[in-house]
Amino acid sequence: MTILLSGGAKNGKSALAQDLVVRLASGGRRYYVATMIPVDGEDRERIRRHVEDREGLGFESIECGKNILSCLEGAEPEATFLLDSTTALLMNEMFTDNGAVDGTAGERCAAELVRFAAAVKHAVIVSDGIYSDAARYDEVTELYRRGLAYIDRELAQVCDTVVELAAGCQIIHKGELPT
Predict the structure, then answer these.
(1) How far is CA 53 from CA 56, 90, 136, in A?
(2) Are 127 and 155 a contacting pair, CB within 8 Å?
(3) pTM for the full predicted model
(4) Which pLDDT tens digit goes with each residue over 59-114?
(5) In angstroms, rounded to a whole number, what is the distance separating the alpha carbons of residues 8 and 41?
(6) Distance (Å, rounded) from C-alpha 7 to C-alpha 10?
(7) Could you tell me the sign of the dihedral formed by the alpha carbons of 54, 68, 159, 10, in that order?
(8) Cα–Cα distance between 3 and 155 in angstroms, integer?
(9) Number of other residues whose CB lies within 10 A of the CB of residue 65
């Protein structure tokens, strides 16, 4: 089963994702695919909180900030994966170390994420729905938002279940959550 969780910040996506992975894994192996590459103290604190939240849940962490399919090397495809998040992955792929902006990163990430979802038995993929407000931003930010929206659309087509979290509510757009 593949599940896409999307929504705004601080809406419980990570906690729900962890709960879903525990349910889907039914005692089997669990991988947490961490895509954030920390750049400052705020990032490191967020990572620390996420690691603390997973404590005792049996997750094996895989750090994979770029080239998402590489997270499958050495991993058991029959395991259950939590990929958190497409938002950080796109940022890492789009904004290069030399300061250039890769305008093709959204399409490339989407294709790789679709392949990832097809390659594993169970996956819960977390994304931030930061592309749906009406505000207009600079050209580069708009390119990033369009790329993230494209990734979500492509994943929504192939995932069994698609859930949006908003104001603490779960809005199921496709499929159903496992019990």
Answers:
(1) 9, 24, 35
(2) yes
(3) 0.93
(4) 999 999 999 999 999 999 899 999 999 999 999 999 988 889 999 999 999 999 99
(5) 22
(6) 9
(7) positive
(8) 9
(9) 17
